[in-house]
């Protein structure tokens, strides 16, 4: 009798002293677990005589019930305290600044392409496109590169296996095929509805897009971007080409101090042909436009070769035109000081965060054509 009273008060003291749920659970297991003190007392009932059991049974069961209730009560208290503590610790502090959000950015090449389109759109050019996977005719033959012409060598690219007709398609080496697609009006179905479907002169288009060559160094990548330009009208001459490109450079580089020069060159699809350089300062690891004594090539151009006009069904005695092709990524490197072209396509988010543009920043070209 006394032993049960002592045990009960002892256990009650242990329950009251349990400081957390783990300690309380230890007390419960020691008393009511499989081999706990109270459980063993309950088990001992089986070995007693009926009289003894009648006397001890209610006492031991009562002890078990009271202890169980005591533990449940203590658990509720401890759980409430734990919750209180957690709530106090995790209180939302509305005065804290919001954590920074990861923002995407517009890739410099896309930004530069938009800026270029904005300048040419002001001059009345519209945008035409062509497929990345071209056929030999549009990429070469139609542009006056006959089979085995040595200039094809400079356009080493990626060819596909022969198709059903035995022809091998290729990843276009330049955006010039867009010229042919635009000029050939009736005798050719466009490759896909969105591609330039041909139009009669006068023609004034630019053709931005991806281009491919087997090349890789600081200023060359196997995939890059070009923007083609084509103007066909009556009495077009080289002076129009020079003015257009000079005006473009002043607007694009946002300075009237741009100095350009034309160097004679050769392209199968233009006659005469030229390359255009921009004067700049390349000392000190960066490029500054409008000063210095270095020259950087930014494009090729010239008067559209009469053979191209004839191939596209236009009479060269009636229509003339100029064309040019510029490297979009190259222009971006110059304008925004990106030293290595390979990083432009490296997909490194740190590089993109540094050189990328806010999606809300419209092309910053508000000064008007001069
Ligand atoms: N397609 C030439 C290239 O990739 C660039 C070019 C030169 C385009 C002269 C033209 C042009 O339209 O007239 O090197």
Secondary structure layout:
Blueprint: H1 2-17, H2 21-32, H3 37-44, H4 50-89, H5 108-122, E1 126-127, E2 133-134, H6 136-139, E3 159-162, E4 168-171, H7 177-183, E5 203-212, E6 223-233, H8 238-252, E7 260-267, E8 270-281, E9 288-289, E10 294-304, H9 306-311, E11 320-327, H10 328-336, H11 341-344, H12 349-355
The protein binds 3,4-dihydroxyphenylalanine.
What overall geometry do the principal axes of the alpha carbons give?
A: elongated
Please give the CATH architecture of the largest domain: 2-Layer Sandwich
Compute the number of helices: 12
Largest sheet: 8 strands, mixed
Rounded radius of gyration (Å): 41 Å
Q: What is the share of helical residues?
A: 25-40%
Mean of pLDDT? 89
What is the CATH T-level topology of the largest domain? Answer: BirA Bifunctional Protein, domain 2
Fraction in beta strands: 15-25%
What binds here, in terms of ligands, is:
3,4-dihydroxyphenylalanine
Name the poorly predicted regions. 189-195, 366-370
CATH class of the largest domain: Alpha Beta
Concise overview:
The protein is α+β, with helices and mostly antiparallel strands. The protein contains twelve helices and eleven strands. The structure holds 3,4-dihydroxyphenylalanine.
């Amino acid at each position: 009798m006394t032993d049960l009273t002592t045990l009960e008060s002892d256990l009650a003291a242990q329950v009251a002293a349990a400081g957390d749920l783990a300690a309380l659970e230890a007390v419960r297991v020691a008393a009511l677990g499989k081999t706990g003190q109270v459980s063993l007392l309950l088990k001992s009932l089986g070995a007693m005589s009926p009289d003894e059991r009648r006397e001890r049974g209610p006492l031991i069961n009562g002890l078990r019930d009271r202890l169980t209730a005591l533990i449940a009560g203590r658990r509720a208290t401890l759980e409430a305290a734990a919750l209180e503590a957690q709530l106090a610790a995790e209180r939302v502090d509305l005065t804290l600044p919001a954590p920074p959000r990861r923002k995407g950015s517009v890739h410099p090449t896309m930004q530069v392409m938009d800026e270029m389109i904005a300048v040419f759109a002001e001059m009345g050019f519209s945008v035409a496109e062509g497929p990345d996977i071209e056929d030999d005719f549009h990429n070469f033959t139609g542009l006056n590169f006959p089979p085995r012409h040595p200039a094809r060598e400079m356009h080493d690219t990626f060819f596909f296996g022969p198709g059903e007709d035995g022809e091998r398609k290729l990843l276009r080496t330049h955006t010039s095929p867009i010229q042919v697609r635009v000029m050939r009006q009736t005798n050719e179905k466009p490759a896909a509805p969105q591609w330039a479907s041909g139009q009669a002169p006068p023609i004034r288009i630019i053709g931005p897009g991806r281009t491919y060559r087997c090349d890789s160094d600081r200023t060359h990548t196997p995939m890059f971007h070009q923007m083609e330009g084509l103007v066909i009208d009556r009495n077009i001459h080289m002076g129009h080409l020079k003015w257009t490109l000079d005006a473009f450079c002043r607007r694009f580089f946002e300075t009237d101090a741009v100095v350009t020069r034309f160097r004679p060159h050769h392209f199968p699809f233009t006659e005469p042909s030229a390359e255009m350089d921009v004067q700049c300062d390349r000392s000190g690891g960066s490029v500054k436009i409008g000063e210095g004594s270095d020259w950087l090539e930014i494009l090729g151009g010239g008067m559209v070769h009469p053979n191209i006009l004839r191939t596209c069904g236009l009479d060269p005695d009636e229509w003339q035109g100029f064309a040019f092709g510029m490297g979009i990524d190259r222009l971006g490197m110059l304008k925004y000081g990106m030293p290595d072209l390979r990083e432009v396509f490296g997909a490194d988010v740190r590089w993109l965060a540094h050189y990328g543009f806010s999606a809300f920043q419209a092309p910053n070209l508000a000064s008007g054509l001069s």
